[in-house]
Design brief:
heterodimer, A: 698 residues, alpha/beta, Nucleotidyltransferase, domain 5, Rossmann fold, Dna Ligase, domain 1, eight-stranded mixed sheet, six-stranded mixed sheet, 32 strands, 32% helix, B: 604 residues, alpha+beta, 3 domains, seven-stranded antiparallel sheet, five-stranded antiparallel sheet, 12 helices, 21% strand, disordered C terminus, Hydantoinase_A (chain A)
Chain lengths: 698, 604
């Protein structure tokens, strides 16, 4: 069979094709890039698929599986062009979405913007108050649902042409009967509408976050759903009978149908592939502790993967733009830093790099497209680390003189530095900013980077890998086989994954049999929901796996941490194990655990997983004692971070074989990425395709 | 200032700047994530940072603005009363004395000395607002006679000496707070945060050495100071005045209290002179000078002059922003009380003062100000006794609204000026305390100030007690209305309503102490609405219609204040609007009819 991973980025759509099995010839893997088509991502996706099939010498109809990483939903939030949404909410609480958490985005500002007020997901005119009341702490109904009001609101939405409707009632996580009934009524009036209840989208305590998530789902849902179904149809029309699967923010893939209904789960689809690809690269070398560093033109993303397990962000931290979104997302840190980041002197005389970016247009000064501000890429060119004649495989012409000129006038002269010193400074400040973000995602969360390998990828990652590893004290650097396309590879190495959650606030201190029964019942119900989804996807029972999580806090705290639920029905012993797991996590995250404070389970989360065989990367030919000179391209002067200039050989990565070792200074060039091996470091080519870079043993 | 005179290169400078900032953020993060009381974990009423041996702020986390800039005063206070007189490795100091620099007594400060290679080099410290420190009434206090009614006062006390906890003190705290368990666990969270800050600072020193780290810190302070000074220099030299009145002191209801602000700009320095403001009051409604009055003034200038929304990058948050600002308040005034006056309920006076600084400067910097803000806050303490006999105490911060601004409407229902907390989730409250929220939405009983950019709309929040309990409320501005600016109209005053189980309702004062409320009764808070900015007739009719559609504005208000005619079908009547607006403009040019000698005809 053949399968394809296709990841859509801002500039390029990246693809990877794996061919194997009967009648398909030898196992082989192809990678490819086509320009993205931002007006309709599916055009680029389709073109890329057809092209990579041709490159691989197969018919499009041979493709069985396509896994897609898409920024469609994300872009709707950035461009603010989602659906007009209607909302029903409990009377007295019409403005929960307008008030938010009543905290300003800035401490010291008078002219600040409040995005949830200036660009609301649901306009106030479409937020209709409904008579109904569910009471804490057990969910009893204090006021029945006023069905006439619901019907009148639905008619109003109908008259206004609104076809995306949400139902958000207080305490619906305790009792969802009113939300469900209201949904039925709306569907009677508006049979074709996209309707979602807060208890379906995020069945957890905290009204603002739950409503915001539901509103976001309704805002991005209709367009996302249209895009996915349109893509599905285009594939069919092109004779492709493959299953189409979508990467979710949590690093698992899911079906078009599910992602259409719960579009809020794919808001970070585009970023998740990179993390999964980084984990895969580590696994190629049997390295389970990996820090992934994905650096592109305008942004850099970092994630810490301990023991091969991708971490999920605390739900209290999952924001998309300014909106809290209670959908599981991979724990990653994103910052506006990359090859396009602009270096400048601010009005107080400080030397800054980013977050402003030259983007793709005009791009770095050296592109000669009119950019005059110096960027990180310009600094790399000045230092001789990026060769004008091999930039993007020679695909883009660059002019080193323009890079020098921009750095000289904008940075070097004002600071009284030489152009080379200024260029080194740009790289150093960039790396310092990035290493702080990596530390915040690792050290600050209780992980010791000295036990981790750093996997740099994305176009600009491998240039900075060693410097970043040094800055955060990572053990070694592992450069994946195709750094520029790692996010697409990530799509073919991830599992099918469904998640369900429900708030079941339970104090562990005085838990009785009824509370235990309730916990077990909720676990059973959520597990059954996962199983149903996996069954629908045709996943055989023996490949259905369930991860069970209790989100806990010390009684009285406001932030939960994840604890593992041991196998079997929860009893006293397993409760103790949950508590111990929570205590350990608390100690890891905060450096402290309380012995004498009661623990509370807040939310139960069940993740149903169908394991997938990860992409197999073809093994490299063995060097068999040969010298790497066969891969030597030429030698050029290059400035490294020690400020010295070295005559530095360039090697063609395609020609490097398993076991080859290169002593720094050296530069390894491939189509869309350049790997820097500084003096004092050795790069070793692994048979599995990775390059390992370590400090030279003295 | 710079002990080493090490000139750090511009690149290393940025590296250390980022590192310092990250340490402060990590300290703040651990503190609010770990803590128990909602005032810390949800409202994030905290501050955290690193300080040098001269008590300069090297860096601070983004906590609550009033905490920022207050810790140096604590450190100076501790210096004057430190137990044993010297700092030792392993010490943890607990401090909250308002006459030794504390911001106010519930803001407990935890200080850990940072030793590096055996030498004291810096301090890691944080402050956090505690729910109850055993004051005269649960949670909050207003009508009290002196500082000793504020509860436990700690002055330079070592909670840990050389790494060993003072068990006697720890036990003492356990018996002197209505929420002792919470208080002790929150203090633990503070200690964890300060220890982490100290450890990170040591790591930074290990990497770069003392000369470089402190050299860089000094340069960063100079940089921030220079930025602030260059902004002050843009303001024309001169004296700028504004004044307003506080409702009362929480006990003497007929006595309004003036706040007089003179902003004196001289070159690149500025002085805020509060001379002429009310004398200190006999209740807890006074403002500690060092720990609150001064940081509040710093906050005003940071928000106006180095407005984060108008800056490409944020300034390093350090001492440099405080240096160009001098604050003067006569001893014995409400902004500089004399011991032993109580001085716990100090927030609203500070916020009103900031609002008046903005008003004073509005004529010379119209692009950086707002119209009148709510400039208060609603701080409510709900309490009662649990079935098993323990106290429960819940502190709630309610938000205000902003005045209109030169390019945008005033934000609605949001923490104002010096306040910047998070609200406690309604559902979280309902699950854990015998209280239920009945209403939380925008006010519809009044309209905000009209203007080219309208004022923000205040919130209404109704909380009902499910068991017998008590409420203390600290708020302001039931009388002084937020002003309109540059032709905008005034906003609306605040209001508090007490309701009883039988349905009776009664408006009451903004401040009251330990009011007993039976089960089923409670309080509704109505926040003031901001004033408008610019002439309402300059607001595009289209936008007024949008506001009508969204219920931010009534049809009548659109007609009266904006001259915009919206039909019953909620459509814009453009020709009627043009006529109406022309008429209003015409009327404005004419003196009132009475002055023209004409008979005044009453029209309905």
């Amino acid at each position: 069979m053949a399968r394809i991973g296709v990841d859509v980025g801002g500039t390029f759509t990246d693809l990877v094709l794996e061919i194997e099995g009967e009648n398909m010839g030898q196992h082989r893997v192809y990678v490819h890039k086509v320009p993205s088509t931002p007006w309709d991502q599916s055009e680029g996706v389709l073109r890329g698929i057809l092209e990579i099939c041709r490159i691989g010498g197969i018919y499009p109809s041979d493709v069985r599986l396509i896994v897609h990483g898409t920024t469609v939903a994300t872009n709707i939030t950035i461009e603010h062009n989602g659906a007009e949404v209607g909302m029903l909410t409990t009377r007295g609480f019409r403005d929960i979405l307008h008030i938010g958490r009543h905290k300003r985005p800035e401490n010291f500002s008078l002219q600040f913007d409040v995005p949830w007020q200036s660009r609301p997901l649901v306009k106030r005119r479409n937020r209709i108050a409904i008579g109904e009341r569910v009471m804490p702490p057990h969910g009893e109904v204090a006021q029945p649902l006023d069905e006439d009001e619901v019907r009148a609101a639905a008619e109003l939405f109908k008259a206004r042409g609104i076809r995306s409707v949400i139902v958000c009632f207080l305490y619906s996580f305790l009792n969802d009967a009113h939300e469900r009934r209201a949904k039925e009524i709306i569907q009677e009036v508006l049979p074709d509408a996209y309707v979602s209840c807060s208890s379906e989208v995020a069945n957890v305590i905290r009204e603002y976050e739950r409503f915001s998530t539901t509103a976001m789902n309704a805002y991005v849902g209709p367009k996302t759903s249209l895009y996915l179904k349109n893509l599905e149809q285009k594939l069919v029309d092109a004779g492709i009978k493959a299953h189409l699967r979508i990467m979710q923010s949590n690093g698992g893939v899911s079906t078009v149908e599910k992602c259409s209904k719960e579009a809020v789960t794919i808001l970070m689809s585009g970023l998740a592939g990179g993390v999964m690809g980084g984990r895969w690269a580590g696994a190629l070398s049997e390295e389970k502790n990996v820090i992934t560093v994905d650096i592109g033109g305008t942004s850099a993303d970092f994630s810490t993967i301990p023991d091969g397990k991708v971490k999920i962000m605390n739900p209290r931290d999952t924001y998309v733009g300014a909106y809290p979104i209670l959908a599981p997302m991979i724990d990653l840190a994103t910052m506006g830093a990359g090859g396009g980041s602009i270096a400048y002197i601010d009005e107080g005389g400080a030397f800054r790099v980013g977050p402003r970016s030259a983007g793709a247009d005009p791009g770095p000064a050296c592109y000669g497209k009119g950019g005059t501000e110096p960027t990180v890429t310009d600094a790399q060119v000045v230092l001789g680390r990026l060769d004008p004649d091999h930039f993007l495989g020679g695909g883009i012409e660059i002019d080193a003189e323009l890079a020098r000129e921009a750095i000289r006038t904008k940075v070097a002269e004002p600071l009284g530095l030489t152009v080379e010193e200024a260029a080194l400074g740009i790289i150093r400040i960039l790396n310092s900013n990035m290493s702080l973000a990596i530390r915040a995602n690792s050290v600050a969360k209780g992980y010791d980077p000295r036990k981790f390998a750093l996997a740099p990828f994305g176009g600009a990652g491998p240039l900075n890998g060693v410097a970043l590893a040094e800055a955060v004290s990572a053990r070694e650097v592992i450069v994946p086989p195709a750094p520029g396309i790692t996010a697409a590879i990530g799509l073919l190495v991830t599992d099918m994954q469904y998640e369900f959650m429900r708030s079941v606030p339970t104090l562990l201190k005085d838990v009785g049999q009824p509370a235990l029964d309730k916990l077990n019942r909720v676990i059973d119900e959520l597990t059954a929901l996962c199983r149903e989804r996996l069954d629908d996807d045709g996943v055989p029972a023996d490949n259905q796996h369930f991860v069970r999580i209790a989100e806990c806090r010390y009684h009285g705290q406001g932030f939960e941490l994840r604890a593992d639920i041991p196998e079997g029905r929860i009893d006293g012993e397993r409760l103790a194990a949950i508590k111990a797991s929570f205590q350990a996590q608390h100690k890891r995250d905060y450096g402290w655990a309380f012995d004498d404070v009661d623990v509370e389970i807040v939310t139960i989360r069940i993740i149903g997983i169908a394991r997938t065989r990860p992409l197999a990367w073809p093994e490299l030919e063995d060097a068999a004692g040969s010298s790497p000179d066969g891969a030597l391209m030429y030698e050029r002067p290059t400035i490294f971070d020690d400020r010295k200039t070295y005559a530095t050989p360039r090697y063609d990565r395609k020609k490097l074989k398993a076991g080859h070792e290169l002593s720094g200074p050296a530069i390894i060039v491939q189509h869309d990425s350049t790997t820097l091996v500084p003096p004092g470091y050795v790069a070793k080519v692994s048979g599995k395709g990775n390059i390992h870079i370590n400090a030279q043993r003295v | 200032m710079n002990p080493s005179n090490t000139k750090v290169d511009p690149i290393t400078l940025q590296v250390i700047s980022g590192a310092l900032h990250t340490i402060a953020e990590e300290m703040g993060h651990v503190l609010y994530r770990m803590s128990f009381s909602s005032i810390i974990r949800e409202s994030q009423d905290i501050g955290a940072g690193l300080f040098d041996l001269h008590f300069n702020t090297l860096t601070e986390s983004e906590g609550s603005p009033l905490h920022i800039g207050s810790i140096p005063a604590y450190l100076r206070g501790i210096d004057a009363c430190l137990q044993g007189g010297t700092w030792n490795e392993g010490d943890v100091v607990l401090h909250n004395h308002p006459y030794y620099g504390a911001s106010h007594s519930p803001d407990l400060c935890i200080v850990v000395p940072v030793f590096w290679r055996g030498e004291l080099v810096a301090f890691a410290a944080n402050t956090a607002h505690h729910v109850d420190i055993g004051a005269a009434t649960p949670g909050l206090i207003i009508d009290i006679p002196d500082v000793f009614a504020e509860g436990m006062l700690f002055a330079g006390i070592k909670l840990y000496e050389g790494g060993k906890r003072n068990e006697g003190l720890w036990q003492y705290i356990g018996h002197n707070s209505r929420t002792a368990k919470q208080t002790k666990d929150d203090i633990d969270a503070q200690i964890a945060s300060a220890l982490l800050g100290a450890q990170r600072m040591q790591e930074l020193l290990d990497t770069y050495g003392k000369e470089t780290v402190f050299g860089a810190a000094d340069q960063l302070m100079d940089y921030t100071e220079a930025m602030m000074r260059s902004r002050i220099a843009e303001i024309p030299d001169g004296e700028y005045f504004a004044e307003g009145y506080l409702d009362d002191d929480g006990a003497n209801r007929d006595k309004r209290l003036p706040i007089k602000v003179c902003v004196r700009v001289t070159g690149d320095s500025v002085e805020v002179d509060l001379t002429g403001s009310a004398d200190q009051v006999p209740t807890g409604f006074n403002v500690p000078f060092e720990g609150s009055t001064k940081p509040a003034c710093y906050c005003a200038f940071r928000a106006m002059l180095t407005d984060a929304a108008l800056m490409e990058v944020k300034l390093p948050p350090n001492e440099g922003s405080f240096r160009p600002i001098k604050v003067t308040a006569p001893k014995g005034s409400i902004f500089n009380p004399i011991y032993p006056a109580a001085a716990e309920a100090r927030f609203t006076q500070c916020n009103r003062m900031i609002d008046l600084i903005i008003k004073a400067l509005a004529p010379v910097m119209p692009q950086r100000v707002t119209a009148g803000n709510s400039a208060t806050l609603s701080f409510a303490a709900y309490s009662g006794i649990k079935a098993e006999g323990d106290y429960w105490v819940f502190l709630e911060v309610n938000e205000g609204a902003y005045g209109g601004r030169p390019h945008s409407d005033g934000p609605d229902s949001i923490d104002n000026l010096m306040a910047n907390t998070r609200n406690n989730p309604i559902e979280d409250l309902g699950m854990h305390l015998p209280m239920v929220c009945d209403r939380y939405e925008l006010r519809d009983d009044v309209m905000p100030g009209a203007g080219q950019f309208r004022g923000g709309i205040g919130v209404v929040k109704t909380q009902r007690l499910l068991t017998d309990g008590a409420i203390t409320h600290e708020s302001e501005r039931h009388l002084d209305v937020p002003w309109g600016a540059f032709g905008g109209t005034d906003g609306a005053a605040g209001r508090v309503e007490i309701f009883l189980p039988d349905g009776t309702k009664q408006d009451t004062y903004a401040k009251f102490s330990n009011l007993r409320v039976p089960a089923g009764g409670g309080m509704a808070y109505y926040a003031p609405c901001g004033g408008g900015y610019g002439d309402p007739l300059d607001r595009p009719a289209r936008l007024v219609l949008e506001d009508v559609l969204d219920g931010f504005c009534t049809r009548a208000h659109a007609f009266d204040a904006y001259g915009v005619v919206v039909t019953e079908a909620l459509e814009l009547d453009e020709s009627a609007t043009m006529a109406r607006r022309t008429l209003i403009r015409l009327e404005r040019r004419l003196p009132p009819l009475a002055e023209q000698g004409a008979a005044v005809v009453e029209t309905v």
